[in-house]
């Protein structure tokens, strides 16, 4: 039995992914803050809506998907109802395993997860870290739950803030890049729809090449960059505007912000 507590956008994405992967709706419990939201999820997915306490009592795996600011009150509510043999998976940004462990008040195995919005299309990048009481079997169980919605990577918890900056926020950087490239196409006289189609397919194709070829991105870029050609002219302009340095600084700023959020 799996319980998803606080089934917002991320919780629903995980729920739908689990069901697409073949999980029985009868084996999934959900909770939601608003009754109308809970009723809608129950109707659409055929899962059972319960209270947070009932979910904590009955599920072998408890997935916490509430907003970070709501995590403390949720843990206080369920602490007395979580048996020591349960696995707790936290998907709330910035919430450490020690934060969860200290509020549950027992040696509960906790796994921390940072995922991203492509979970909605089963192409998420999820990174997981074990808490003080979580072992190999707990990590494997977390991986089994997350693989239906994308790729899963284990990292030390000390790298979670960096992962948040790199992959958690990563899709936004690409959307930002697409927006800029489409604007460039419009500047050059292309219709917006055509520019968007060209840029989107270029990014999808490039991403698949990068994933499937096993080549370093430098090699793939150099294959497009002919001497004295159009691509090197564009690359030179990007370097002149310090775009690479701007990305380094931006991702570092996101890492620092994640760290501050984790510290309250």
Description:
The protein folds into 2 domains: 154 residues, Rossmann fold, CATH 3.40.50; 93 residues, ProC C-terminal domain-like fold. It has an 8-stranded mixed beta sheet with strand order 3-2-1-4-5-6-7-8, with helices on both faces. The model has no long low-confidence stretch (mean pLDDT 94). α7 packs across α12 and α8 crosses α9. It has 264 residues and is of the alpha/beta class. It is 56% helix and 13% strand. α5 links the parallel β5 and β6. The longest helix is centred in the C-terminal third of the chain and has 22 residues.
Question: Which features characterize this protein?
Answer:
264 residues; alpha/beta; Rossmann fold; ProC C-terminal domain-like fold; eight-stranded mixed β-sheet
List the topology elements.
Blueprint lengths: L1 E4 L3 H12 L7 E3 L4 H11 L2 E2 L2 H7 L2 E4 L3 H11 L8 E4 L6 H8 L5 E5 L9 E7 L5 H11 L3 E5 L5 H9 L1 H18 L4 H22 L3 H8 L5 H11 L2 H20 L2
Parallel strand pairs: 1-2, 1-4, 2-3, 4-5, 5-6, 7-8
Antiparallel strand pairs: 6-7
Helix pairs in contact: 4-5, 7-12, 8-9
Q: Give the proportion of residues in helices.
A: 55-70%
List low-confidence stretches.
none
Mean of residue pLDDT values: 94
Q: Globular, elongated, flat, extended or rod-shaped: what is the shape?
A: elongated
- Computed structural class: alpha/beta
Q: In DSSP terms, counting alpha (H) and pi (I) runs of 4 or more, how many helices?
A: 12
- The domain tally reads 2
Q: Which percent band covers the strand fraction?
A: 5-15%
Oligomer: single chain
Q: What CATH architecture of the largest domain do you see?
A: 3-Layer(aba) Sandwich
> Spatial order of the strands in the main sheet?
3-2-1-4-5-6-7-8
Look up the CATH topology of the largest domain: Rossmann fold
